[in-house]
């Protein structure tokens, strides 16, 4: 149902007032020192409820919902923008500070190699899980009906494919090198986060080696970096305080604008996707268990970060909260936490670069006469998924980019991926949460294997509560 212009404005204003009241309630909860995690869960639940009511009353594609979402988006999208604002400075300063505080640079390569190795290993598992799940559910792209929106999306993917195919594997590897680190600080490329990590590592190692020849300058540089790190982390704390408000707004707009008909028509794919994602979460928890650590402690401490990743759909934007959780609650050393969070936003994303492309490939294979149960097909698919997981952007669209690379490498038609556009946001929420959990798992496992995990901090359940700064 559509209303006149005056009625539309009236309803939009009412919806905005309701949102403002809910934001004030969350603020009141913070003032009376309600636990941070409880406020985040409250925001999640209320956001789902309010979004559902908006959709039921006004319909997802109505002018009222669109305009309401635009105004509420100031809070949700604004929060995500603040997090993205701090990502590059945080990554750069944190890695430099972590390296300059080392005794030598000898262990840096081992640390980075182990983080990347675990990320790729879990991506291999994720691709296997995605492939098997798609096979078990009998998913087939030819069974999906396409409309005008889906056809338009298919054409768009065909265009993007040309851009992807222009870059060879060696060229892609070279693209990780920061030719212009200041440009990469703006996040201008899919590999910008990796490029900033590499530049920061070089800067940190150079400062570390300066100790022998010019100790005074090295000491001065260390003091500057430590001061910058303290200021940046304070900024992170200020921004993370906004999390409940951001989650409320993001969840409201997501649910209000969700295409329910699309979800119902593609219900089997949605269910299969979440089954695969849940299996991968369980595998992460099993890996934590195999190290002798308590997975329940881990789960309780990472849930607020996963909720934010779920609602915001940005792995890169989750980096500040990811690092905060690893260092202050899980006991992961600063250097390892920064590497795993930064690498995890671009390399070895279990959800976007692992589960999703593998499921699509298995779905599309029968449409061109390929047996997806073939061992040769599955082995090739899993290996290609692992290799192509390098340099996937940690923001919206990263899964599509990964899928294009995998499907084109497997000689499968990429256009059919556009048939899933109506359920893309819903599935992307779960994929992003899995990406972030994969990076935190890599951080904990690396720290444990290198003997740099503070187990007392990991086991201290009081650290799931608010610190004085986050209250």
TrEMBL record:
InterPro entries xref list: Na-dicarboxylate_symporter (IPR001991), Na:dicarbo_symporter_sf (IPR036458)
Keyword Transmembrane: yes
Subcellular localization(s) per the UniProt record: Membrane
Membrane topology: Multi-pass membrane protein
Principal location: membrane
Coiled-coil regions listed: none
Source organism, top-level taxon: Bacteria
Keywords assigned: Amino-acid transport, Membrane, Transmembrane, Transmembrane helix, Transport
Matching SUPFAM superfamilies: Proton glutamate symport protein
Transmembrane segments: 6-27, 39-58, 78-99, 111-132, 191-210, 231-251, 271-293, 373-395, 401-421
Family: Belongs to the dicarboxylate/amino acid:cation symporter (DAACS) (TC 2.A.23) family.
Name by which UniProt lists this protein: L-cystine uptake protein TcyP
Organism expressing this protein natively: Latilactobacillus curvatus (Lactobacillus curvatus)
């Amino acid at each position: 149902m559509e209303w006149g212009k005056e009625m539309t404005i009236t309803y939009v204003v009412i919806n905005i007032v309701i949102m403002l009241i809910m934001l004030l309630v969350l603020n009141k909860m913070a003032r009376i020192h309600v636990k941070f995690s409880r406020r985040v869960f409250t925001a999640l639940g209320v956001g789902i409820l309010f979004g559902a009511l908006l959709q039921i009353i006004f319909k997802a594609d109505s002018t009222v919902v669109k305009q309401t979402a635009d105004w509420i988006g100031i809070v949700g999208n604004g929060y995500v923008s603040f997090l993205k604002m701090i990502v590059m400075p945080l990554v750069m300063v944190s890695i430099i500070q972590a390296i300059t505080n080392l005794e030598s640079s000898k262990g840096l390569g081992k640390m980075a190699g182990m983080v990347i190795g675990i990320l790729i290993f879990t991506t291999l598992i994720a691709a296997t899980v995605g492939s098997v799940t798609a096979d078990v559910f009998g998913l087939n792209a030819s069974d999906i009906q396409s409309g005008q929106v889906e056809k338009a999306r298919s054409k768009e993917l065909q265009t993007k494919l040309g851009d992807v195919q222009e870059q060879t594997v060696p060229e892609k590897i070279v693209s990780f090198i920061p030719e212009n680190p200041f440009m990469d600080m703006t996040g201008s490329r899919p590999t910008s986060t990796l490029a900033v990590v590499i530049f920061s590592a070089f800067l940190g190692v150079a400062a570390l080696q300066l100790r022998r020849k010019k100790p005074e300058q090295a000491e001065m540089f260390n003091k500057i970096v430590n001061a910058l790190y303290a200021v940046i982390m304070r900024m992170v704390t200020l921004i993370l305080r906004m999390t409940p408000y951001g989650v409320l707004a993001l969840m409201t707009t997501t649910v209000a604008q969700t295409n329910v008909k699309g979800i119902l028509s593609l219900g089997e794919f949605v269910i299969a996707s979440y089954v695969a994602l849940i299996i991968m979460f369980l595998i992460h928890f099993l890996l934590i268990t195999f190290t002798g650590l308590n997975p329940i402690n881990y789960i309780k401490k990472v849930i607020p970060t996963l909720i934010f990743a779920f609602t915001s759909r940005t792995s890169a934007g989750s980096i500040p909260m990811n690092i905060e959780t690893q260092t202050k609650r899980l006991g992961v050393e600063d250097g390892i936490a920064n590497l795993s969070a930064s690498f995890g936003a671009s390399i070895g994303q279990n959800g976007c670069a692992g589960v999703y492309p593998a499921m699509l490939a298995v779905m599309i294979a029968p449409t061109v006469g390929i047996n997806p149960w073939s061992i040769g097909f599955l082995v090739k698919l899993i290996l290609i998924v692992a290799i192509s997981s390098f340099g996937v952007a940690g923001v919206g669209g990263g899964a599509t980019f990964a899928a294009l690379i995998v499907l084109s490498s497997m000689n499968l038609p990429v256009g059919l991926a556009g048939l899933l556009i109506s359920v893309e946001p819903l599935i992307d929420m779960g994929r992003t949460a899995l990406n972030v959990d994969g990076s935190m798992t890599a951080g904990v496992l690396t720290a444990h294997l290198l003997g740099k995990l503070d187990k007392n901090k990991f086991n201290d359940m009081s650290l799931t509560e608010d610190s004085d700064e986050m209250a």
